[in-house]
Amino acid sequence: MATSPCSSSGVSSSSSSGLGADAGLEIRTRSVEQTLVPLVSQITTLINHKDKPKRSDKTLQAIQRVGQAVNLAVGRFVTVGEAIANENHELKEEMSVACIEARRAGETIAQLTDVASLDHPESDSHITIFTDKTGVVKAARLLLSSVTKVLVLADRIVIKQIITSRNKVLATMEQLEKVSSFQEFVQIFSQFGNEMVEFAHLTGDRQNDLKDEKKKARMAASRAVLEKCTMMLLTASKTCLRHPDCESARINKDGVFHRMRIALEQVIEIVTDSRPNGENEMAPISIYSGIKEFKNKVEGLRENLYFLSKENLSTMLEVILEHTEDFTDSAYTSHEHREHILELSKQAKMELEQLVSVWMQAQNQKTKDLMEDLEVAILKTCQCMNELKREVHSAATSLAADLLKYHTDHMVLKALKITGVEGNLEAVAEYTCKLSEQKEQLVEMCRLLRHVSGTEPLEITCIHAEDTFQVTGPQIISAAETLALHPSSKIAKENLEVFCEAWESQLSDMSMLLREINDVFEGRRGEKRVYLSLPRPGKHNANLKALKPVKLDTEEQAKIAKLGLELHLLTADVDSETEKWEDQENEIVQHGQGMSSMAYSMYLFTRGEGLLKTTQDLFHQAEIFATEGTKLASALHPFSDQVHDNDKPLVLLEAEKLISMCKQLQITAKTSVQGKSATFTKVDACIFKTRNVMTLLCQLLPLCCKLLRKNKAGNGCLKPAPPWREDRAPTGANARAAERRAETLGIKALENHVANMTFLESK
C-alpha cells in the first residue's frame, strides 16, 4: 500500500500529490489529482476536529453528517470501481483489493463519526473520533491511498485506449504502404483519417491533462509532426502510385511513413512514461540551465560554506564553458560575439578562482572581513555569468533574426518548383545544394537557440524544430527530383508544394518561437500555448481532394485588428485574475488559463502570426475554446455548493450565461460558408463572440475568488455535504451506450462521485 499523505496531526489539503512518493501510485495527471481534492478537504476537516476542546451539538451533528457523506461517496465510488474491474479483467484483482480497502475505510470513518446521539462522545464505552484519535488517522490513510489507487488504475484504461488507437493507426498505415491501386488507397485512407481523428482526440485530452510541462511540450511536438505528416502521407503515396518505378518518389514516401512511426512511438513513450529497452531519457543540457544551477550553488555559499566541494563548482563551470564552444566554433557566429564569449569565459574562470580562494579561507576562519570578501566574490562571479548569458542570448537571437529575415522570400523553394516543372535536372541539382546549405544554417540556428531558450518546454520546441528541418530538407529534395523526372505530373507538383509548405510553416513557427524566447529573457510572459489538434476537420475527405487553406489578406487583418487588440487585452486581464487565486490547481483557474491561452492564439491569428495559419484553424480553435468554456461553466455548479446560500444563485446565473455564449460560439464556428466575403464575416463573428466570452470571464473569475475568500472568512461552522447524485453507468446494448462506455467507466465516472463533495472549513 502506498505511503499515506496523512500524518499524526492531520491531512494536508494539497497532500494528494504527496502520494507520488510511491512509484506505483504516482499521479501524473491533473484529473486524478483534482478528483482527490474534495475528499482530502473533508478528511482534513474531520481530523482537525478530533482535538477540538469545544464541541457543540451543532458541531457534533455536522461531524456525523460529514462522516456519513464520506461513507456514501466512497460506496458509490467503489461501485463504479468494481464496474471498471468487471469490464477490464487485467485490472480486476488490483482494483477489487483497492475497492475493498476503500469501502472498509469509509465504513470505519462513518462509525468513528457517529457522535451526534451521544451525551458524552468522549466516553470510552463507545469508540469515536474523540476517543480513538489514531483510528481516524489510520482510516483516512487507508481511504486516501486506496481511492488514489482506484483512480490511478482507472487512468490506465485511458492509457490503454490511446495504445489501442495507436495500434489501429499503425495497422492501417501498413495496409497503406502495400496498396497498389488508387481505388484501394482511397478506401483505406478514408479509414486511416477516421482513426487519426480518434487518436487526435485521445492524445489531445491527455496532453492537456498532463501535469509535467516538459511532457506536454514533447506531446505537442509529436502531435504536430503527425498533423503535418498526414497530408504528406496522402500526396507522397499518390505520387508513388502514379509513378511506381520512380526511386525518388519511393524514398519520399518511405521518409513520411518512417517519421510518422517515430512520432507515434514518442506519444506512447510519453503516455506510458517509458523508454525503449529501458533507456533513461537524457535531458538536453543548455547553457541557460547550466548557468542557473551554477549561480544557485554559488549563492548557496552565503548560507552554508560546506554543502559542496570546490571541485564540484569547477566541474559545473567547465561544462558550461564547453557548451559555449557551440557558439565559438560555429561558422555562423559573428567575430564580435565570438570574441566577447571567449573573453567572458576567461573572466568566469578567474572570478571562480578568486571565489574559491576566499571561500577556502572563510571555511578555516569565519571573520567579518573574509565574509565581506566572500560576498563580493559571489556577486562578481554571478555578474560575470549574467553577462555571459546575455552575450550567448544576443549571439543566438541575432543570428536567428538575420536568417529568418533572409529566408522569408523562399527563393530556393520557388526555384525548385519552377525548375522541377521545366524538367531541368541540372538546375534542380543546383538548387537542392542551396537548400541543403540553408538547412544546415537553420539546424545550427535551432541548436544555438536551444541553449538560450530559458524554459524546458521551449528547449523541446527548439529540438523539434531542428528535427523538422533535418527531415523536411531531404524530403523536399526527393520530391523536387521526382517532379523533374515527371514534369507534367500534377500529383508530383502537388506533392512538392506540400513539402515546401511544411518548410515555410516551420520558418513561420521559428519567428514565433524567437519572440517567445525573447519574452522569457526580458521577463515578459512567454508561455502562451496553442491547443493543437490533428488532423483538422475537413482537411482530408474520402475523395482525397484537400480543402484550399484560406488566410486573411492585409486588408482583412486591418479590419479585424481592433477586435483582435481587445481580445489581447482581455487575455492579459484574465491572466491577472487567475494569478490572484491561492489555489492555482483549482478547476476554474485551470479552465480559465486554458481559455486565455486559446484566445491569445486567436489574437495572434488576427495579426497573421502564431500557429493558427488558416481560417479553418481559427474555426476549429473557436470550437475547442467554446468546449473549454462549457467545462468551466460545469465546474461552477459544484463550486456554488461551497459558497453561502445567498450567493449561490449569482454563481449559477453566471454559469448559465457562459453556457449560452459558448453554445452560440460553437454554432457560429461549425456553420459552413462559401466565398471570401462570407468566410471573413464568420471570422469576425468568431472573434467577436470569443471576446464576449472573455469579457464575461473577466467578471466571473474575480467574483468566484471573492466568494471563495468570503466563505473561508465566514462563521467557521461546518456545512453539511449536499445529497449525492445517482450517477449510474448506462446499461443496454444500444450503439450509443457502447460508444460512451469507455468514458462512463473511465476516470470521469469516478470523478463524479467525489467532485460534488463540499469543501468544509475547520472550526
Written overview of the protein:
Strands 1-2 form a two-stranded antiparallel ribbon. By secondary structure, the protein is an all-alpha fold. It folds into five domains: 30-116 and 130-156, Four Helix Bundle (Hemerythrin (Met), subunit A) (Up-down Bundle); 169-272, Four Helix Bundle (Hemerythrin (Met), subunit A); 287-400, Up-down Bundle (Four Helix Bundle (Hemerythrin (Met), subunit A)), CATH 1.20.120; 408-522, Alpha-catenin/vinculin-like (Four Helix Bundle (Hemerythrin (Met), subunit A)); 554-713, Alpha-catenin/vinculin-like (Four Helix Bundle (Hemerythrin (Met), subunit A)). It has helices at 30-49, 57-87, 92-112, 133-178, 182-209, 213-242, 247-272, 287-300, 310-328, 335-364, 368-406, 411-422, 425-451, 456-485, 490-521, 554-579, 587-606, 615-640, 648-670, 676-712, 735-744, 747-755; strands at 6-7, 10-11. The two termini are 32 Å apart. Mean pLDDT is 79; it is low at 1-24, 526-549, 715-746 and 748-763. Helices cover 73% and strands 1% of the residues.
Residue runs with pLDDT of under 50 for 5 or more positions: 1-24, 526-549, 715-746, 748-763
CATH C-level of the largest domain? Mainly Alpha
The description of the largest β-sheet is: 2 strands, antiparallel
Q: Work out the strand percent.
A: under 5%
GO molecular function: actin filament binding; cadherin binding
Subcellular location: Cytoplasm
Family: Belongs to the vinculin/alpha-catenin family.
InterPro entries: Alpha-catenin/vinculin-like_sf, Alpha_catenin, CTNNAL1, Vinculin/catenin
Which features characterize this protein?
single chain; 763 residues; mainly alpha; Four Helix Bundle (Hemerythrin (Met), subunit A); 5 domains; two-stranded antiparallel sheet; disordered N terminus; disordered C terminus
